[in-house]
């Protein structure tokens, strides 16, 4: 891969395989295990990860957009692809043409499918049990059943909902528990279709894993059914729960760069646009070729740190579109700067020295969430695949 500036996202396939194996062994009987690879697989490279996940026995993949599904199909992904976002008539045609599975969440969707289907088409149905974003209302369930039951082409395979507060998953009286009970009720209406149900995102899955670990009695709504699983964040190595992670997950992405140049500042001089950081003493500044256009949020200016030479160096001055600056004075003092030429900088993830800086920490500083830190890593940042199966990616697909 051509890379003229050494800024990249390292994607560790061994860690991804580990996370998937943990899921497969914790829930060996799940009726549905559908890793979410929408939004470029949370920034990790959707085609590469989808193809790799297939080698691990994954048979279902979740995307948001039809376009995302088309890309996967065009790169040879054979797994069942669930398209979670809505669609119009043209979208319904594409979904059918490319053998994808629509997650139907409105009467319009049913109408579009009815108007274009001329052979059996599998669908999943989404119910709104509290998120108030997409899906049929629970009270519409019987009417939806009646409509689908008399359609000769539409084959209902599953019904689904989305937890809007999965963080309360372990609470038997929480919002998630209420949502699961509602979906369980709805599922009774659809029994004649021989459906299964899916509802658990990472927070739901990890809540269930936590209960399993504790040996909690199985009357919790997380055990009402053998719920299908739609893991997103957790397969990339992170735990959205406020509690400790009940599963041993390993972060997959490390966002890295290398120092472009050093500058010597006199006390009183400032750094970057607006001069928001002023040197209190003579200082050495590392200029790192990564900026907000690469997904390093500007709100982190003068807030965060990055790992430089195995130590935490403060991000100083305003983060620019293409650069950020680190105060490395104390780490290079009395040393030959030539020894730090092209030094590695870890923005998050693992450094080559074994250090780890979590994107969760950056998310807090940026008043954001881990999902956003991962998905923000920019298009112009090459993804570099590492691990035992990296050659599979290189041979089958190539880099980004
Ligand atoms: C419908 C649906 N299911 C599952 C997920 C996965 O969520 P998480 O990344 O929290 O596991 C998402 C992500 O937003 C989603 O939209």
From TrEMBL:
Positions annotated as active site in the UniProt record: 38 (proton acceptor), 273 (proton acceptor)
Pathways involved: Amino-acid biosynthesis; D-alanine biosynthesis; D-alanine from L-alanine: step 1/1
Origin superkingdom: Bacteria
SUPFAM superfamilies xref list: Alanine racemase C-terminal domain-like (SSF50621), PLP-binding barrel (SSF51419)
N6-(pyridoxal phosphate)lysine found at: 38
Cofactor(s) the record lists: pyridoxal 5'-phosphate
Catalytic activity: L-alanine = D-alanine
Coiled-coil regions listed in the entry: none
Domain Alanine racemase C-terminal: 252-386
Residues annotated to bind substrate: 133, 321
GO molecular function, one term: alanine racemase activity
HAMAP family reported for this sequence: Ala_racemase
The name this protein goes by in its record: Alanine racemase
């Amino acid at each position: 891969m051509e890379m003229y500036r050494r800024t990249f996202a390292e994607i560790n396939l061994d860690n991804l395989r580990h996370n998937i194996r943990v899921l497969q062994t914790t829930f060996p009987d799940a009726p549905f295990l559908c890793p979410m690879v929408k939004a470029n697989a949370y920034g990790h490279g959707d085609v590469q990860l989808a193809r790799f996940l297939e080698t691990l026995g994954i048979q279902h993949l979740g995307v948001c957009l039809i376009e995302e599904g088309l890309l996967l199909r065009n790169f040879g992904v054979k797994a069942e692809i669930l398209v979670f976002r809505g669609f119009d008539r043209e979208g319904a045609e594409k979904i059918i043409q490319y053998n994808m599975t629509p997650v139907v969440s409105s009467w319009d969707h049913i109408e579009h499918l009815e108007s274009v289907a001329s052979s059996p088409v599998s669908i999943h149905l989404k119910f709104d049990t509290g998120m108030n974003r997409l899906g049929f209302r629970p009270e519409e369930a019987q009417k939806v059943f009646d409509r689908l039951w008399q359609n000769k082409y539409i084959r209902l395979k599953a019904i689904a909902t989305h937890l809007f507060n999965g963080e309360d998953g372990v609470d038997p009286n929480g919002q998630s528990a209420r949502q699961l009970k509602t979906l369980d009720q709805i599922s009774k209406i659809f029994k004649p279709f021989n459906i299964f149900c899916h509802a658990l995102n990472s927070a739901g899955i990890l809540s269930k894993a936590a209960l399993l670990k504790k040996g909690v009695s199985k009357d919790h709504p997380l055990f009402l059914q053998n719920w299908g699983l739609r893991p997103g964040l957790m397969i990339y190595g992170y735990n959205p729960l406020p509690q400790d992670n009940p599963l041993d997950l390993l972060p997959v992405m490390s966002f890295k760069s290398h120092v472009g140049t050093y500058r010597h500042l006199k006390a009183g001089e400032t750094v970057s646009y607006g001069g928001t950081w002023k040197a209190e003493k003579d200082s050495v500044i590392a200029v790192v070729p990564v900026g907000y256009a690469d997904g390093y949020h500007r709100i982190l200016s003068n807030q965060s740190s990055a790992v430089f030479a195995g130590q935490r160096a403060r991000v100083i001055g305003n983060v620019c579109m293409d650069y950020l600056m680190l105060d490395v004075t104390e780490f290079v003092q009395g040393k030959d700067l030539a020894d730090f030429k092209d030094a590695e900088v870890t923005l998050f993830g693992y450094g080559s020295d074994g250090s780890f800086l979590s994107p969760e920490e950056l998310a807090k500083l940026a008043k954001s969430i881990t999902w956003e830190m991962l998905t923000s890593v920019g298009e112009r940042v090459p993804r570099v695949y590492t691990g035992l199966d990296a050659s599979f990616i290189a041979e089958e697909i190539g880099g980004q």
